[in-house]
Structures are given as structure tokens and as C-alpha cells.
Amino acid sequence: PSAHLSSAPLVTSSMSGEAGEAVDEAVAMPPQPTTTLSDSAYNASLIERSAAIVSPNGVLGNEGGKSSDETEPATLPLLGILKATDSLRHIHATLLAKSTQHGDMQFFFRRLLKLVLHQAIERLDFVESRVESGKGQEYHGLALANPIVCAVTLMRGGMHLAHSALTESVSIKSLSIGHILIGSGAFGTEKPAALYAKFPLGLKGKRVLLVDFCIGTGNDLIAAINALLMHHATQSTIVVVAPIASEEGLFQIRREFPELAIHTAVVHKVWTDDFDIKRLES
């Protein structure tokens, strides 16, 4: 399914009439989608190519990782893509459809973002933990290996959706959330750059969830990542979360920051700006 369909071209086929003559009849070809949604095979190829990217220290992108089976999201430590289920394709198509109402747009986007956040949290490091229940029973569970987690969102209209999704999805009490504003043509350069930033205190050693609506060219996120690195965050502790991405943007970020993790739900093979983030504004 896709919201943007091309016009239906007509082709001519020959059919035999009652008198045995060839009769030309115009047959409408089904409209072809201009936006191709990602599927399991495509996701697997993206992950394989991402894993081949080598960081400056010679570590492969999937170092220490493992392949996923059909019941798990297609995920390696540095690139996670949700499994292409029918439900996911329905959410994606709803977000692309120009007929989707504003309230439904916000509802389905927040739902998609929460799914990606859950995947990102699942891929963090956990350690064994023992707790005592209210009845005095010992329970063997897990705890975050590094419980110091914060989040940073790119400032755009509708980012309140990201804030609510973060507070509901990240099982961390009093999650600290910062903001960064990216603009083009700043400081005499054509490249996007940080115009304003309010980060959580002390990024060094913290796991940082960097959240944006989508990854188009990847330039805005690259500027945001560079700003985080200037404030003592490290590639290995930054986790990019964006529900929708383009193949071009994904690999631009991966090549620039090969030790950084990215999580998304669906990937467009060709980015055409079909996803209008302005429609998420209140």
C-alpha cells in the first residue's frame, strides 16, 4: 500500500471478436506506487551492508552481534529495523496517506515511535539482577548495565509526541530530556548546524537516545551528533531513534559514525519527501 500512486497507463491487447477478427481493447494497468516500503529481504540486505562498514579502529559494524530469526526484529547492535509485519505496513501507509486526519496522524506516529523505542531499549546492555518481592520471595531478573540514560530530541513542530512516547516507553524514572535546534546556512555555511542546544547535564558516560521524526538525507542528525560529541558524548553511547528512514540517510550516518547505533521501523529505498512532518504539528 502507498499513499502516492502514479497515473494508470493504458496498454493495448489483442482480443478475438465473435467474427474471429482481432479487436483492440484498452486495458488499464494497475497504478504503481512511487514509494516502496521495506520488506524482510530488503531489511536483511541493509543490515548486511551496514555490518560491513569498518570503524577507524578496525572493528566491523556487527562485531559481537548475531543474526535474527523470523520471530525477532531484523537487528544487529548498530542497525535495528523492525520486522516488516502487516501491522507495521498498515501504520506506515496510514502515515503516508494524504487522507489521514490530523488526530490519526499523531496517534499512529506516536505508536510507531514507541515500537522503535522499545526495540532500542531492548538492545541496550543488561546484567543479571536479584530482587525481593513484597512477599519476601527472591526474583531473578535483569537490570540495565548502565542505568544512566538520557534523551535528546531535535526541535520540530509536534515533538511533544516524542516526549510523551519517551516517558511512556523508556522504563527509567525521571528520564532527563534535552533539545537541539538544527538550521541550514548557519554561521556562513550551507551545511546544517546546531543553532541552539539544551542538553542533560554531564553527557560523558551516559547512554543518549537521539530522537528525530525521520532520517531523510541524514544531514540534520549528523549535525546533532557532532554537537553531542562536542559535549563529551561518544559514538558508542549514542543511539539514534527515527521511525522512518531513507537508505541514503542511513548509510550516510553509518559511514560518518560507524560506531553509532541506529534504530528505525521502515526504510525507503528512495527518499521522496512523501512523509510530511509538518502534518504532525499541533
Helix content: 25-40%
Please give the count of helices.
6
| Largest beta-sheet details | 8 strands, mixed
- Cα distance spanning the termini: 27 Å
**What is the rounded Rg?**
22 Å
Side by side, the strands of the main sheet go 3-4-14-12-10-7-8-9
The arrangement of helices and strands along the chain is: EEHEEHHEEEHEEEEHEEHEE
* Structural class designation: alpha/beta
Number of strands: 15
Rounded average pLDDT? 75
The percentage of residues in β strands lies in 25-35%
Give the uncertain stretches in residue-range form.
1-35, 58-76
**Global outline:** globular
Structure, explained:
The structure is a single chain. The protein has 282 residues and is an alpha/beta fold. 27% of the residues lie in helices and 27% in strands. It is built from six helices and 15 strands. The protein has helices at 40-51, 86-96, 102-122, 160-169, 219-230, 247-256, and strands at residues 10-16, 22-28, 74-76, 79-81, 126-132, 138-144, 149-154, 176-183, 193-198, 207-211, 214-215, 238-241, 244-246, 261-264, 266-268. An eight-stranded mixed beta sheet has the order 3-4-14-12-10-7-8-9, sandwiched between helices. The chain has a three-stranded parallel beta sheet with strand order 11-13-15. Helix 2 crosses helix 3 and helix 3 packs across helix 4. The longest helix has 21 residues, at 102-122. The relative contact order is 0.15. Mean pLDDT is 75; it is low at 1-35 and 58-76.
